[in-house]
Amino acid sequence: MKRFFAILFVFVSAMMLIAQPKNIVVIMGDGMGYNHLLLSELLAEINNLEIATNKFQVASLVRNETIDNIVTDSAAAATAFFCGQKTKLGCLGIDKDQIPINSIATILKEEGYKIGLITNTKFSDATPAAMYAHAFRDDKKKILEDLIETDFLDFFVAGGLEDLGVNPFTLKPTSKSPLKKLNENGYKIYGINYEPLFDGPNDKFMAFVSLGHKSFENQLIAGEPTYLEIIEKTISKINLEEPLFLFIECGRIDHASHINDEKALKAELIMFQKIVNYITRVFPSEDTLFIIFADHETGGLSLMSSPTKSEDISIKWNTTDHTATYVPFLTFGNSKDSFPKLMHLMDVKEYLLEILEIKIPEGVH
């Protein structure tokens, strides 16, 4: 009998060890409503690609309204996701009273997780900035100051090199480049095509891989890597044995939708499917929780009557702005069933901490 209970204890202990995910990997389609998601799947099928999102389930219907508007922006939506609070339009990491609030990334860092963010937008764009900044989205000076003071990020990949003091011809840092301060804070610094700009004392790094936002995938300039190639290069530089919180933003979906550029949108959505396929192969599903979500819908996108498997799916735009609608929230892998069927973006932080069995002291946000 004692031997039976000993075996049972070992079995239960082993189950507890794998009960919660080691990794949290989030892929966000900025501006990607349900119709964008459907279009990405149809385009994958037409192009003989794996429909990577078929691995996922719709975990929740998610609302995203702000305190002051039923239509959110990327700043308030990302703040809700990262910081767990509903705020006002234009707010990054601050509540309605402009009081700084903690990102889930800073909490996970204290719990021993590696923290990484990859985006194809500028470093100062609303979504990436919401992870590290406490400012209004238009206050680019404060956003840069907050990035320079950031120490919890283990790796950060974005565009925006043109705003970081580089010679426009050589792309080398000038004498007053903020990149030097980032390097002094312990980060290796890379530029376009991952060209080394400053070495560092450890494995922490920041890469600014485009002058502005990355080009749309159908408009790449000579020698410019695809977004998937940038992600692959980034993943090759990190230790996958350590617990990781990774946030990947497909931000150019939103930009294409704002200008109603059908060709650019379709190229970005195909790339989104390729990225999901790659990421779900790199990280084992048994110890990784994968989340796909959108911050809001952009463009009022509608899919119109088109022949099945047509290479020319007809779409219609209804606006060049954001719309109020439920947004996708899909899950796959470890703990995929841990979210309610209806929630607000601000609830995600609480559920993630619950999944990871991390308790925050009362009064700490």
Descriptive overview:
By secondary structure, the protein is α/β, with parallel strands linked by helices. It has a single domain (21-347), classed as Alkaline Phosphatase, subunit A. It is 32% helix and 19% strand. It is built from eleven helices and 18 strands. The protein has helices spanning 2-17, 34-46, 74-83, 104-110, 126-132, 140-149, 178-184, 227-235, 252-258, 262-282, 348-355; strands at 23-29, 57-58, 61-63, 91-92, 114-122, 135-136, 155-159, 188-190, 196-198, 205-208, 244-250, 288-293, 297-298, 302-303, 315-316, 322-323, 329-333, 342-344. A ten-stranded mixed β-sheet has the order 2-17-12-1-11-5-7-10-8-9, with helices on both faces. Strands 3-18 form a two-stranded parallel ribbon. Helix 6 (140-149) packs parallel to helix 7. Mean pLDDT is 94; it is low at 4-17.
Entry keywords:
Alkaline Phosphatase, subunit A; two-stranded parallel sheet; globular; 365 residues; alpha/beta; 10-stranded mixed β-sheet; 32% helix
- Physical arrangement of strands within the biggest beta sheet: 2-17-12-1-11-5-7-10-8-9
Proportion in helices: 25-40%
Q: Examine the secondary-structure arrangement and name the CATH architecture.
A: 3-Layer(aba) Sandwich
The amount of beta strand, in percent, is 15-25%
Distance, first to last CA = 48 Å
**What is the number of beta strands?**
18
Sequence stretches where pLDDT stays below 50 over 5 or more residues: 4-17
**How many domains, in number, for the residues?**
1
| Overall average residue pLDDT | 94
Q: Helix tally?
A: 11
Structural class: alpha/beta
So, the CATH homologous superfamily?
Alkaline Phosphatase, subunit A
Q: Which sheet architecture does the biggest sheet show?
A: 10 strands, mixed
Please identify the oligomeric state.
single chain
Level-1 CATH class name: Alpha Beta
**Spatial extent as radius of gyration:** 21 Å
* Basic shape: globular
Succession of helices and strands: HEHEEHEHEHEHEHEEEHEHHEEEEEEEH
Reported by name, the CATH topology is: Alkaline Phosphatase, subunit A
